[in-house]
Structure formats: C-alpha cells, structure tokens
C-alpha cells in the first residue's frame, strides 16, 4: 500500500513541470498592420508583433507575401528577436510596386508563427498620354505648356523657371489672386496716366483782346465802332436779310489778309440758352481730338473747296450733335443752341478786323471796316466766335431735328473755314438812307448774331466816300 502511494506522488511531481511549461508557451499576435508610406515606386508596410504568452526563448521569422491571382508569392522575410511576456516590436517591409503597376491594388499577407494579417495597397495608375502631352513632347524646349484641369492647354512664348500644376486647387487660387493684383495695378497705372496726360477739356472765361474806352463820344465814328464791336459775334452774316438793317461781324485774318492764317482753334463748347442765359446742364465741351480735326480744316482754309471742307468738318459736326442730344430732353428741345469756338494766334502774326454791313436790296453791303486797338498782356491773342442755331421746331420730329441740326452745324463750320467770296459791288440803284440813323448809346442785349442789331450813326469812311461820289 505504501508502495502504491509513493508511486503516485512521484508521478504527480514529474507531470507538474510539463503542465507549467505548456501554460507559459509564447503567443505572437500581429497588430495594426498599415501602409506607413507610399510613392510612385515603393510602399512601406508596417505592423506591431506582440507576445501575449510566456517568454520566448528563441527568435521567430515574419514573412510578407503577395497574393496574385489566388497564388501566394513570398516577398521578404525578417527575423524577430525573442520577446518576453507582453513584449512588442515593430516590423517594416519595403515592397517594390513597379512589377505590379497596372492592377488596381496589391494584396499582401503577413505571417508570424501561426498568426497572420492582410492588407491591400492601392497602386498608382499609369497616365494615358493625351494629344496635348504628345504635342508637347514635339515642341521646342523654349516653350512651356500650361495644362488646365478642364482639358484646355496653351503654350507660353517663354519657359517658366518652375512647374505650374493647375490641377491643384491651391495653385489655381494663387494664380487667380496674382492675376487680380496685376489687374488692379494696371488699372491704377492707367488712372494715373490719364490724370497726367489726358486732362479734362476746359473752356475758360474769355476777355476781348481789344480795348474799350468808356469816355469815348458815342456819336463819333470811333465811338460807334466801339459800340458795334460788342455785337459782332462771329464772321457769319444772316441770310436772308431785312432791307435797311445793319449787322456787324469780325474776321480773323493773317498779316497778309488771308482768312484764319496764323489762327488755330483751342476749344469748342456747345450749350442751350434761354432768356436768362446759358443752361448749365446742357453744356458740353468737345474732346481735343475733335479740336485737332477742326484745326486741319483751319490750316488748309486757303486752299479748301466746298466738298473737301464738308468732308473735314462733318465728323466734328456729328460729334457736336451727339453731345447736344445726349443732354436734350423733351422740355428743352425747343431752346436755341449756342456753339462757341475759341481761337488763338500770336501777336504780330494775326489781325482782327471788324466789318459793318447794311442790307441793301436782298444782300449785305459792307459800309465800314476797322481794326480795333489791341490790349496785349502776353504774346498771344484769343478770340471767340459764337454761332446761334435753332432748336426743335413745332411739328418737327426728333429724327428730322437731328438731321437738320447736323446740316446746320456743318454749314456753319464750312462757312467758317472756306475762303470768303468777293464782296459784291454797291449797285447805283440800291437804296441809301436819307439821313444817318441814330444808334444806341450802349449795345443792346446779345441776340446770338442772327438778327439785325439796330441802326448806326457815323457810318464810317467807306460809306461817306460813296455818298460823296454820288
């Protein structure tokens, strides 16, 4: 009996170490398998190996395989050191991707002892060469092609020192911001240049360059001439004339008597007026380019013919009418229109001559002319012409009014630049006043230069000599 009990105890003592050894065997587990990094040619696969069992006494191997068409192909094997209980280590495999380019993804399997894990790695796609890219390869190396994300490419005439990837939204936003800043800078530069070189046309105040003597006898010849100078608004004579009426005009001549020789236009203004004066809101000053166009006709005045003069002044007349209608409304359409022209000439090279005309029969006859005493404060002389034009007539449509006004402005400008016709001789049968009419002591209000301005006394040397001859 004692012998049996002793054998049982010996057997229990021998089996106990074996059971303890089986409970402490190492157990390796793969955790957190992932793609650590990837580029166009390689991918790095990483995972952690943890020992959840007893301490290991010997190293083990970790194997990474690729699964291609259900076939497992080993790629790489690494040796893992012996891990103690709850020990952990990180394993990394570098996988070349070039052999597998073309497939959508690469399936990988990691194995450590009896534990495994799987992961799928997306593979980069081979870009299909577009016609633009093929053409780019054939272009010269001195050009740069910018490829936009919406299949539109264009060539720059120069090569950029950097690569422009417009498929990146950040790059697109940066390019748009740079272009916006450039547009703002260009706009600011144009504004500065316009302020410096393209100034707003002006039409300043004008003071007659000839002197006025307030204490001069208004009934003397010089006094009557001085009174008539304020009535001469331009070089135009109204047609038809009223028999027995008088009208004064002024001529801009050169030193040799040629019309407009040495003069040039410096400003042009058009506006409407009423009984109280000019209507400010209707005023328009023409741009310098139209003044230059009118000066072409002024410079060629000596050699101009009717048709050539019309061709030169017609664009100016068209712009004047355009400015008038831009500010015209239904209530102001019937107001008369004043066209002001400013001329400038050098002292000693130009002359201003006044003429007094009388309507005899059905035409104007010159009865006096004179040159005023000039008041020169600088080396230039400025003179002003004012032409009065009719507004819209009763029953006249807007279209007809526009056409008529353009014709009237053209006639006025043509008459201004054309050489004057020879003065008709005074007929023997023409009526003459029996006595010298009495003129006003002060000039009447301005009537636009289109109506008779009253009678005159002291008709001047020319009319007196004619009477003596008769």
The share of residues in extended strands comes to 25-35%
Q: What is the total tally of β strands?
A: 17
**How can the largest sheet be summarized?**
5 strands, antiparallel
Number of domains: 3
Judged by helices, strands and strand pairing, the structural class is alpha+beta
Q: What global shape is seen?
A: rod-shaped
Indicate the mean pLDDT.
79
Roughly how much helix do the residues carry, as a percent range? 25-40%
Q: Helix count?
A: 8
First-residue to last-residue Cα separation: 193 Å
Low-confidence stretches: 149-154, 425-470
N-to-C SSE series? HEEEEEEEHEEHHEEEEHHEEEEHH
Q: How would you describe the overall organization of this protein?
A:
The chain is of the alpha+beta class and 470 residues long. It has three domains: 24-122, Sandwich (Immunoglobulin-like), CATH 2.60.40.150; 141-197, no CATH class; 221-469, no CATH class. The protein is built from eight helices and 17 strands. It has helices at residues 2-23, 131-138, 169-197, 221-229, 288-299, 306-326, 398-417, 461-469, and strands at residues 28-38, 42-51, 60-68, 71-80, 88-96, 105-112, 115-122, 144-147, 153-156, 246-254, 264-274, 277-278, 284-285, 337-346, 350-360, 363-370, 380-389. The longest helix has 29 residues, at 169-197. The protein is rod-shaped and about 180 Å long. It starts with a helix and ends with a helix. Residues 149-154 and 425-470 have low confidence and may be disordered.
